[in-house]
Write a structure and sequence with these properties.
The protein is mostly beta strands. The protein is built from four helices and 42 strands. It starts with 46 loop residues before the first helix and ends with a helix.
Amino acid sequence: MKEKIIGILVMTLLITTVLPVAGNVKLKNISKELDINSLSEISQVDFFDKKIAEFRDRAYDDWIIKTQQTSDGGYIGIGLTESYGEGDYDAWSIKTDSNGDETWNKTYGEETREWALGGQQTSDGGYILVGSYILDIYLVKTFSNGNEDWSKTFGNNYKEHGSFIQQTSDSGYIIVGRTTDTPVGTYDIWLIKTDSNGDEEWNKKFGGNEQDYGFVVREIDDGYILTGKVGTQNDDVCLIKTDSNGNELWNKTYGGSNSDGGHDVRQTTDEGYIIIGWTCSYGDGDYDFYLIKTDSYGNEEWNKTFDGADAQTAIEIMGFSSGMCVLESSNGYIMMGITDASYGSGGLDILVIETDENGNELWNQTYGGEYTDEGYWMDQTSDDGYILCGATRSYGSSGLNAWLVKIDSNGDEDWNKTFGGCSPVNHPPDTPSRPDGPENGFSGVEYTFNTSTDDPDGDDLYYLFDWGDGDDSGWVGPYSSGSIGSASHSWDAGGEYIIKAKAKDVNNEESEWSSTSTINIVEYNTPPYKPMINGPSNGKVGNSYTYTFSAKDPEGHDVSLYVDWGDDSNTGWLEYVESETDVTLDHIWNEKGIFTIRCKAKDIYNAESEWKEFTVTIPRDKVLNNLFLTFLQSHPYLFPLLQKLIQQIGLGM
């Protein structure tokens, strides 16, 4: 029979999505009003959360982001703390005397996350702080003792934050930071002016279609000057001049084909500007310090780069605020940032460089110890020295400690002090799961068991397995919280053994014992005998045939059967049944041939029998009926007649 095969053509619709790709957009003369009264609820992980998470360990972490000498000769530190306050992190101010010894410290916020990223002493002897409250800009005014006077928030709840604040000549405040119009949109530089009570007078946005951040703003005689970075990958340093109402007068960008950005700006005595930032376009191309001098209109006069600095770390750590700063000095300029292992004692250190008025280096000094030490800000002091702030792991208690360093005019250290770094309450791990592993085994053979649990503090964990024979695994690990821990063991003698597990964290706090598992160990085992196979030995294509299989185990253990049908199909290992139990299975062969059914058995200890084979022919052979042959043998005289009849039929066909 001939069969015709009809092919069916299936049409498939391919849908493609075209995404717009933005190139490098220079800062344009854009100044936009923003309605900061529109609020919306969103649930997102903030940019700050990801930065802070990089420092998490089992001790509290604290940062001083900005510092200033106060009118009484002491110092104010402004930043964020995990050691104090009500929330996970709180905005923080810490006051010291002239020797850096703490006078008081205060926190601001609720049971959420608040950070202070900028601030200063105000004309009334109090303090002003700016930063982030959940996803809005957070403004806090305090009395001279650090107690809160009032607080304000500004924003869309779309991850806005304030990087820098300065009290203005009218006793109000000017704030710079970043904002976006949508939860996943690009950022613009955001400039906000308030009165002395923190009530908004106006706000302006500056930027293009990419990620634009404002790091520092300063009041000048006829308005404001601010710096930051514009762009996403091929960033540029930006410098924006506005009038007293925030209207842009001009803007300039500096940099090359790679990433560049500005972190601080000051007006110089010649009414020009000095900018400190980073560059990947010049120097050795690896986030060098980038010092730029301009005239009063922002036209570049010269620039210098400084190798060995680690501006990249300043960006990564302080991506939400300034991580470098620059001041005029008696000799020219003095700048501060972070250096890698090229300078200092190891790891990261604070780096201070003084230059002449043309940007040529006069000296450099580093501050720090064996571990990571970071500098975020610097201010000149009344004795012509400088106060530096940051965070350190080399000094103080465990964790990341807030840090103040006092140096003289030549960069020699007068003292350094640490604050915070308290150790939190540690919680033991949760009880581990019941150990998971085989229920049966042989003596002398190694078997693996698994367990897992969570640690409330997110610590790494170690596991201990008790094998029930007087031996244990010892502490194995570390494993991250929630991941599976494993250990293996062999038993020397037969018997039933009870297995349990417990966990401990990196602080040696132990959990309770888990619920138990049991393993039955035997010393000697004989595999099952060859299985029996019963069923038809021939059949037709497409018909279903029934076969019965059984296997006997010498010790009477339960057995599992595996059947190979000889046509590239099999049953896999079937469920265990009692020894000598019949297992009935049906099978269909879909093509002609001679097929060999094979069956083997295994016991509960995985000891396997030999294969048993059974041959099946599909289709069955066409043979003459035995009764008909017997009939012809008994009546031979009929054979010639039958032969003649067959011939006649054959001739007529």
